[in-house]
Amino acid sequence: MKKNVLVLILLSAAFLVGLISIVEASDAAGQQEKAKKAKTIDTSAAVSNGHPEIPEGVSCGDCHEMKLDANTTATQMWLNGEYLGKKKGEGVMTEEQLWKEILSMIGGIKKDTKTFVLATSMNNRPLSTTAEFTFDPEKKVLYGVHEMNTEKLAHIKANPWVSLNWHDEFVGIEGPYRCCQIKGRCQLLEGTDPEFEKVLINLAPYEDAAIRMMPPNPTPEQREQVLKNLRDQVFKKRFLMSKITIDRITVVNKDFMKQGFRNVQRWERKDAAAAK
User: Fold this and answer.
1) 116-127, pLDDT tens digit by residue?
2) Among 164, 188, 183, which Cα is nearest to 272's?
3) Full residue range of the structural domain in which residue 160 is found
4) What is the pTM of this model?
C-alpha cells in the first residue's frame, strides 16, 4: 500500500513538472511572438507604466523598429530645410558633384589609404576602433585588412551593420573643416576568397610589410616572388578582409558654402532601403 502511494506521489510530481515546463515554454513563445509584433516607435519614445519588464541588456531596438522623424531632426534641416540663408531644398549638390567631393575627401588607394574611426556593436555594446581602409569608388565599397581574432571582427560577425567616420583635424570654428559619416554593411572575406588577393594587389598597401623581406636591389621577378609569398603565407593565413558596402555618406565641408552649396550634403545608395 505504502509503495503504491509513493509511486502515485512520484507520478503526480512528474506530471506537475511537465505541466510547468509546458506553461513556461508557452509563455516564452508568447513573449517572443509579442516581441515580433512590437510596433514601430520613435527614438524619442518613453517606456510607459504598463510596459512589460525589460531584462538587463535588452534595448528598445531588440523588439521595436526604431524610426527617426525625418521632418524635425537637425540633420534633415541641415540637408534640406531653411538653414544658413538657404531656402528649403536650395543648395543641394547633384550626385555627380557630390561624388567628386567624396573622392577628393576619402579617395585613393595604396599609399593614399585613409584611417577611419570604425564603430561596431554586439549585444547592445558599442565599440569604436581606428582602422585603415581603401576606397573603391566604382563599387562604392571600402576595404580593410585586419588581424584575425580581434574584438571588432567578433562584433562584425555577430552584427554586420557598421558606421565609420573620417575627418580633418579640427582647428577651430573659424577655420576650415571637412568630415564624413558613413553607414554600411560589412562582409568578412577569408584568404581563400578570390576577391581577397585582387584587393591586396590592386588596392591595399600591403607591400609595406615586404620591405624587410626584399633582397638588396631585387629584380622584378624577385620582388614579385617575395610579394606572392607574403600574400600566400602571411596575409591569407593571418588576416581577414572587411568589405563595407556603403549605404549612406553624410559629408560636411565648410568650403561648400563658398561654391553656393549647403555645408552638409548626403549621398544614399538607391538599393540601401531594400537591404535594411
Assistant:
1) 999 999 998 999
2) 183
3) 66-275
4) 0.75
